[in-house]
Amino acid sequence: MANEQSALDQWVMGLPKKGWFQWASKWLVVPFWAWKTPVKKLEGGPSYSVQPGDNVQRMMNLVMPLKDQSAVGRAEAALAIAANKDEIYAGLDNVGTVHFARFVIVDNNICMFSVYDGDFTNYIRDFIATIGSVFDGVVELVAGGEDVIPSEHNVEKFIDWVHAHDMYQVPDDATGILRNQEAQRGDTADTGNDDLELLPRQLILQLNVNTNVSLGSGYRAYPGYSVAQVRKQLGIGW
Hints:
Elements: H1 7-13, H2 19-36, E1 58-65, H3 71-83, H4 85-95, E2 98-106, E3 109-116, H5 120-139, H6 155-165, E4 168-170, H7 176-184, H8 201-209, E5 213-215, H9 227-234
Helix pairs in contact: 4-5
């Protein structure tokens, strides 16, 4: 039949599962590609959009490497969050556009994951205005953090610093990452190999320089009943 693979095709398609091929890809092929055709790390945060619906419930995935990458350093970071939790939460309430936020420690990184509405720059400006001085206590534990604190005196620099530590968000369209790379090079045409089953070289090279990414914009929705409606029906009130 026309869709049957030849023995050679089957052998080629099975190569990624071979141990020797995986070793060669990791230590020889990808490093050679990265040297021969270097790519730039794509910027963090969601893609720009003029559509109002795309600017609701946006994600910020802030990954900040700790200066002290030991159990002591991780403990200091945990303590910095715990000691200022009430002020941080009150500040996020005052920002008024934040749906959700949490802090986690992953592989010697202190991370802040949040969901907000509107423009990223305005979000960070409001963040600085409400809890910048408190958050500085966390940032000073991060590698390079001393260059942007106090944040209230380094607003633009702090915004750029946060943006640089925000994960790149892979577009929901499976080939969007390839389009973003082309746009970064100034190429607006759809070019290259888009057969994702063959793992395009440009996709591999981007994930070689950008090891932490957010896969898509995430699931965004509102429940059938709001918290206010549920509390009203239960007679709890606010």
